């Protein structure tokens, strides 16, 4: 079971499709294998970047079973849904299939502190003893969660074992949460998203790792390992080498298309297809990504990577 | 099949629950019967007021089948969903079960005209030849749809046969749409929501009827019939008699609890239960509703109703 | 000075313009006189309904001075502004001119409880010893304020002496705040807005009066007086007679045009002009208002009013 | 006068304060001088990053006059305001003082295409013959503007001479606008914001330069000059060297504090003070900026800069 000690790299998995929009299970297998080879300690599936909302209930379950059957590392399943009944049903199926935990983002429209804590109280009750990740991603959800609200949820809900941190700006939030756990609050795992954009600073502030799906997932492994080895300058060299691409992939609404293009270029999936509604990249954008990839390769070579 | 000629009263049906939160199918039967007796020309189920988001997929289908098996009038099914795959799957099941059409509200987050028309193009494509109702409810969805956007969707999507109009303010929008269809644009049905708050003015502006779930659904029948009979003063007398209650029920986030309280008081359902998350009424609110109901009864008596 | 004991009717004053958009000071005088004659205990100027945002700084000051020089009742001045410096400057000028207090709505964009309390701490500091009204109007500002946040601001800021309550739904909020002050929290004045739509229930929940600008401001006086006299049925009769018009005026974005039409029809101002950007009423809307006014007059006649 | 041919670097100027919050005119002089020395072709003052909302009207005018009196390059003044009267008054004063144009961002709350074009029609009318920059910054304003809306405004308003482009993602928008002007639409200047995060790609897509206030404004000059000289690889080397800092400064709500820290560290202003409400940097954040600055310096040295 997922618990507060989780750390390292939980890669957010893309969901591969064939050119006609059907699920591409062969690519899914290859993707799972490659994520693990490139250093994932776990995988998160059916998150926002997994195009979860575009799958039918049957397809979601098929993806869950396929990934869990294949993966050598633990699986977390995104179960955000407009209603608790659907969330609870999907979470139950995922856990029965072998998932280690689930991830929940608050629905758009929550505003006050009381609304947010109330929502997660209901989530925790609906999920029973299933451990869950609280996804804090205001840019996508519009829900702004204060550190004090997170601490309240952590205090009230023992099954909340991890924060997927992608508030922006969010560095002070990590420091605040760590100061609170140092002072006696229950310490939960903090893995960071935002495409890795602030990964190095996040680690220095006390994060336990990354949970994101950057098209070169080995970046997270390399940066975290260098940090843990105390080689901070080396970590910065690596991080900076990937930075122009991280930044380019960070364009909201385009990030997934860029990421799938990269995964396809690298042979990790067969097709860069996004399911509708969801557009591919323009020729200009493809040229931009490819130029960045070529430079990145040279810089990583210079670093012996 | 639902088409552009639909008119009259399409009552938005509540979904009744037992005190423990389970679906109350006996009450559902009684509710369907009573809605028809009180003058419904059709029913709309699994809309926002039907707590659709709180049902699992299996429960949704069970409700659809039960209502369609019972109802003497045509059924429209709300199928709004975060993704097109889930929407399309539910719509297919509903139509197979005998529904006459489906209703779709745009997801929160759509902003520009192009985003909104693009979304409904995708919806129409995903639904194939299933006729659909465009639900225009900015207070709930946050999506503001210009008249020109509605006209564009109507022009582009022949399966868009009805507007559920609950923009606020929205009277000029009805006039604009009717002016456009008088000038040659395809004329679709316009049924109005907003709890009936502006029903009389909406009819005078060219709406074809009401699609809402006010706790006294006979109000819509009575007002529409009086208007059609040319008895405008009588229509206003009826409308005004219900107005204090319409206004009270219009409180966002509380309307459903008020409505279910009324339905339970009137014996149309067994319990006023809302499924979680969703609170019941305070003692003070119940006293307020009951006081309004008592006065309303006297005024309707005076009108011979 | 405005303080926690304020009660009764604080009418929100419109700002009259000539047909060419210039300030109409003669109408302003007449409006101030009439508001007082119709029972206002105070006036609030330069609020959202006073088209404050459309006045230059010089014009705002001219309006403030004219109204204060004319009015027999105390004046509250709306000073909401994007920045504290502008707010503080305007508040200082208003108080120097003889205003009794100011009103502040939070800027769009505030979300978490901490952001909102932090903002009002800054407001209180910037205003020094000037008493202020906290305007709680989520439909217009997008800022949702929990009862606990209001209580925190009241506890922290002794100069916060009044709540302009126009949350929707908001009845439980009044009950919660009154329960808190009954239990020992500082009791501030609560005057209610929302065009008077829930005035009767608000009074029964513990509100101290109304602060709104309904086109027939005598309604607030009559309803409050009847309530205070213990004639609740009479109060309801009056309230119900105005209800169809209250509801019609409640259309967001159109309310001011309707109100100015009414004020002009009643001879309280010379022209219904709105300053740009801001449209007048269509012919259809004018016909609707006039029909409602005629019926309202008859019903009030029947009540001996 | 500012016109469609404007290009290069328009630096967004910070507004320096003394530790007690008063305007620091000496630092303002030095800042203006340094911006020009570091290659600015123009300056934009009183934008969002200039803490415009925190200045009183008198202070705004004082800053305008001081900067215009000092600067060897043309000045654009941000005049966004809740109302057209205040905007028009400030714009008139700015132009009289010698500004070459003004900049206007749409107010929060605009949604439909028609609302946005309508707003800018009103702006253009209110500004008369004053040339203006349309600021397109959805992350800050919440207003999403389609390319077709921009083209409509450009077609309708001859005084709209420049787009301050900071939509995100926004690269396709630049391509679309340039394709339209290539096909015959009036071509206006496009200068890009977003802290320079996508400057290189923006230039390649057809932007005319940068309008942003990154703490090392020479970056914009160097990247643009290298691009124009056809030395694309060199441009990328420079851009990449600054990238970790650009990214760090891009944190919304913190960017200005980071920028002012940098400006103070570099001696361009005396104090990093932000006016209230607005917090300074934590010790951890300062350490992060300083570490980035040290690495950046080394990398620029390696590039001979």
Automatic annotation (TrEMBL), chains A, B, C, D:
Keyword terms of this UniProt record: Lyase
Keyword set includes Lyase: yes
Domain of life assignment: Bacteria
Record family assignment: Belongs to the DapA family.
Name this protein carries in UniProt: Dihydrodipicolinate synthase family protein
Organism from which the protein derives: Sulfitobacter sediminis
């Amino acid at each position: 079971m997922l618990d507060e000690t989780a750390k390292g790299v939980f890669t957010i998995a893309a969901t591969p499709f064939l050119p006609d929009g059907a699920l591409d299970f062969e690519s899914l297998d290859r993707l799972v294998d490659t994520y693990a080879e490139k250093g994932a300690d776990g995988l998160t599936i059916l998150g926002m970047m997994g195009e979860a909302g575009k799958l039918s209930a049957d397809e979601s379950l098929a993806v869950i079973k396929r990934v869990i059957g294949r993966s050598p590392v633990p699986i977390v399943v995104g179960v955000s849904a407009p209603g608790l009944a659907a969330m609870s049903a999907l979470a139950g199926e995922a856990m029965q299939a072998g998932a280690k935990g689930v991830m929940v983002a608050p629905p758009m429209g929550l505003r006050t502190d009381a609304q947010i804590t109330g929502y997660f109280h209901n989530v925790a009750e609906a999920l029973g003893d299933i451990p869950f990740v609280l996804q804090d991603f205001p840019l996508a959800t519009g829900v702004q969660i204060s550190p004090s609200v997170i601490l309240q949820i952590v205090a009230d809900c023992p099954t909340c074992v991890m924060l997927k941190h992608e508030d922006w700006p969010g560095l002070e939030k990590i420091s605040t949460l760590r100061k609170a756990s140092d002072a006696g609050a229950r310490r939960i795992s903090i893995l960071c998203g935002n495409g890795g954009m602030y990964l190095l600073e996040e680690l220095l502030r006390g994060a336990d790792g990354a949970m994101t799906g950057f098209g070169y997932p080995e970046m997270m492994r390399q940066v975290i390992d260098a940090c843990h080895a105390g080689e901070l300058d080396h970590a910065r060299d690596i991080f900076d080498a990937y930075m122009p691409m991280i930044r380019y992939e960070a364009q909201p609404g385009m990030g997934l298309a860029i990421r799938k293009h990269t995964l396809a270029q690298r042979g990790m999936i067969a097709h860069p297809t996004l399911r509708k509604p969801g557009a591919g990249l323009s020729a200009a954008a493809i040229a931009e990504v490819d130029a960045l990839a070529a430079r990145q390769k040279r810089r990583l070579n210079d670093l012996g990577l």
